[in-house]
Amino acid sequence: MAAEEFRIVDGLYYTKEHMWVKAEGDDAIVGITDYGQHQLGDVVYVELPEVGTEVEAGDKVASVESVKAAIDVFSPLTGKVLSINEDLKEDPSLVNTDPYGEGWLYEIKMSDPSELEDLMTAEDYRAYIEELESEEEV
Asked: What does this protein do (predicted)?
């Protein structure tokens, strides 16, 4: 599949681990990208951090299990977890059906908003996916 077949939302930040970040002031919402959820397959369980947890960028913050694999989710940002998506406890498939909306994972109060500069823009992420896809075709 080509990068353009996956939904990539302009105005968000992205990681090479297929996470997206929507920054609003010092707060940010974090989720798994459309490409990431597609690679995982049907999500059957999501373990989220506890509200109030302090995390460093790169720390394991959650885990996601699908019919294909179980993965650890690493925080793209340093800060304090403000809220988690409680709906995922009842319906983890929201990660698949609406990755940029109802399938978000958690919200964080950023300790250092300048960390956003280390993440990819939508344009950068599109190029990254195209690179991954071209490597798979070889």
From this structure: The glycine cleavage system catalyzes the degradation of glycine. The H protein shuttles the methylamine group of glycine from the P protein to the T protein.
Radius of gyration over every alpha carbon of the chain, rounded to an integer in angstroms: 14
For the segment 50-68, what is each residue's pLDDT rounded down to a tens digit?
999 999 999 999 999 999 9
What's the CA gap between 15 and 21, in Å, rounded? 9
Q: Length of the chain, please?
A: 138
**pTM for the whole thing?**
0.94
| Pick from 84, 81, 118, 123: nearest CA to 103 | 84
Q: Which residues contact 70 (CB under 8 A, 6 or more apart)?
A: 63, 64
Beta strand spans in 25-68 (E):
27-32, 43-47, 54-55, 60-66
Backbone angles phi, psi at 136, to 5 degrees: -70, -30
Q: Hey, what domains does the chain have and what are their CATH numbers?
A: 9-130 (2.40.50.100)
Determine the Cα–Cα distance for residues 98 and 30; give it in Å rounded to an integer: 13
N- to C-terminal Cα distance for the chain?
Answer: 13
